[in-house]
Amino acid sequence: MNFHSHDRSSSLTHLLYQTGWMGKVVGVLIGITMFYGVSGVVHFTGQIATTTDPALRAINQYIVINNIIGAVITVLLTNWLSGYIEKWTPSLLLQHFILTNLILLAYFGQMSGAYFQFGEQMLIHEEEANRLQTTDDAPWYWYILSPIFVANAFMYFRRQGRLLTRRITEQEYQLSELEKSKTKAELEALQAKINPHFLYNSLNSIASLVHHDPDKAEQMTLLLSKLFRYVTNKTADYFDTLANELEMVATYLEIEQVRFGDRLSFRIVVKDNGLKSAQIPRFLIQPIVENAIKHGVSKISGNGIIEVRVTPNEQHLRISIHDNGPAFSDSIQGGYGLQSIQNKLRLLYGSNASLTLQNEPHKQVIVELPLNQTSTEFVNS
C-alpha cells in the first residue's frame, strides 16, 4: 500500500510529531484545553468538598453530574454513530456536520431532561435568594461547544486510529509475505543445489561404465531416467509422501549398486506401513544416503552396507541412515549434503525437527520430524 504525503500532512498525530511551528501550536492548543478542563474539574470538586452551604453544594454536584453524563452520552453516541455516518457519506466535512447536529440534539435533550427533572426549582430558588451569580459574559450557547468539540475530536481520533491499525496490519502482512518469499527462495536454492550435485555424481558413474560395461551403463541410465521423472513431475512441491521419497532413494541406491557391484548392499525398513503416507520434505533422505556412500562406503575396501530405517517416535517420525564406513570424527563438518538438510529442516520446522550424528551403538544419521506436519503456510501457497 502506498501512503501519500497529503494523508500524513493532514494527520493530527503527524502535526504533533513535527518539530516545526505548526506542531508546537497544535500541541499547545491541545495542552491548554486539557489543562483548562482539569482545572475546571479541580475547581468544582473543591467547591463541593469545601462549601458549607448545602444548597451551593447541591448546585455544584448538579453541574458536575450533568457534565459527566453529557460526556458519557457524547462519547458513546459518537462511537455508535460514526460507523453509520462514515458508511453513508465519504465526505469528511459532511460526516462532521451530521455528527455535530445529532450530538447537539442529544445534548439539548439530556440537558433539558436534567433541568426540568432536577435543576429547575433548585436554580430558581437560588436566584431568588441572590446566592447564585449570573453573568452575561458566558451565554448559554457557549456551553454547546463542549459536546461539539468532544464528539468531533473523538470521531477524528477514532478514524485516525482505525487507519493506523489498518496500515500496521497491512505492513505486518507485507512483512509476512516478504518473509515467506525469502524462505521460499532459500528452499528453492537448496533444492537447486541438491539436484545438480546428485546429477553430477550419477553421470560420472555412468561415464565410468560406458566403455567396459555398456549394459550396466544402460541400466543406470534407465534408473536415472526414473529419478528424473520424480524430480520433474512435482518441482513446485516441498513435501511428498514417505513412500515416494523411499522409492526415489531405492532407485538412487540401485544406481550406486550397479557402480559398486557386490561391494554395496542396502535395505530399507519401515516399521509401520501406515507411516508411508506421512508427508516429509522432498529430497530429505537421498542427500544423507549419498553422503553415506561418499564418506562411508567408498572409504572401505570390504562390503559396504547402507540401511534406511523409519520408525514412529511418539509424535515424531524417526528416520535413521546407517552405513558401515569410518566413524564420524569429532570435527566433521557433515559435507554439503548434511548441511543442506540442516538448513531445510530449520526453514521448514524451526526447532521442531532435528538432525543428529551418532557413532554409538553404531554409526548413523538420525532425522526426527513432527509426524504429518507440513510446517509453514507458504508450503501450500
What does this structure look like?
The protein is an alpha+beta fold. The chain folds into two domains: 5-174, no CATH class; 190-380, Heat Shock Protein 90 (2-Layer Sandwich), CATH 3.30.565.10. It contains ten helices and seven strands. The protein has a five-stranded mixed sheet. The protein has a two-stranded antiparallel ribbon with strand order 1-3. Strand 4 and strand 5 form a beta hairpin. The relative contact order is 0.06.
Q: In DSSP terms, counting alpha (H) and pi (I) runs of 4 or more, how many helices?
A: 10
Number of strands: 7
Total of domains: 2
Q: How would you sum up the global shape?
A: rod-shaped
Portion in beta strands? 5-15%
**What is the spatial order of strands in the main beta sheet?**
2-4-5-7-6
Classification by helices and strands: alpha+beta
CATH homologous superfamily descriptor of the largest domain = Histidine kinase-like ATPase, C-terminal domain
Give the SSE order as H and E letters.
HHHHHHHEHEEHEEHEE
The name CATH uses for the topology of the largest domain is Heat Shock Protein 90
User: What is the CATH architecture annotation of the largest domain?
Assistant: 2-Layer Sandwich
Gap between N and C termini:
21 Å
CATH class of the largest domain: Alpha Beta
Computed Rg: 39 Å
Helix-residue proportion: 55-70%
The major pleated sheet works out as: 5 strands, mixed
Mean pLDDT: 76
Ranges where pLDDT stays below 50 over 5 or more residues in a row are 1-10, 134-138, 375-381
